[in-house]
Amino acid sequence: MYLKSLSLRGFKSFAKPTTFRFEPGITCVVGPNGSGKSNVVDALSWVMGEQGAKNLRGGAMADVIFAGSSGRAGLGRAFVELTIDNSDGLLPIDYAEVTISRTLFRGGGSEYAINGADARLLDVQELLSDTGMGKQMHVIVGQGRLDAVLRATPEERRAFIDEAAGVLKHRRRKERALRK
Ligand code: ATP
Ligand code: MG
């Protein structure tokens, strides 16, 4: 499994539709300060279901929508689409290529889709939960976050391991069942 491409439209500084294509192996994103490198990583977290505006370095979720710049008006929605190569079948879905997208409208309301079909956040989370990607994002260690990972309490460390081992999905299901 590897990330094949990431498309952004109206996400943070990416007002113009922009697509990044990745190959298996290591990808480096380089550029001057403020050019949008971290925004690319934020887009990855976001399309995989990130719910915390702070984790996306904003005050509110709507801050991910392109707010305008000199000479370009702000936009009404943010859209990110991630295509994952699943030819090894690691994702529990019967497709060799999986596309996840998320749209947020300025008026509020997020929409998700998996391979073009409407999906819920829960579907995206479950799809990714055995891969070590997804909800809690310990796979993505942001600028200045390394310290927090190193200083984790034993309970937090346990949650990282649960997530990596794919246990978190079952715990979440159990919690949902108990709430009913
Ligand atoms: P550094 O090298 O300093 O880490 P970077 O390449 O990671 O920089 P980012 O943090 O990704 O840069 O990008 C910051 C830029 O994104 C800023 O210019 C900021 O104004 C712009 N930006 C963030 N959110 C929005 C938004 N909603 N609308 C328009 N521009 C935005
Ligand atoms: Mg940065």
Automatic annotation (TrEMBL):
It comes from the Bacteria. Signal peptide: none annotated. ATP binds at residues 32-39. It is found in: Cytoplasm. Required for chromosome condensation and partitioning. Belongs to the SMC family. Homodimer. Contains large globular domains required for ATP hydrolysis at each terminus and a third globular domain forming a flexible hinge near the middle of the molecule. These domains are separated by coiled-coil structures. This is Chromosome partition protein Smc. It comes from Scrofimicrobium canadense. The gene is smc.
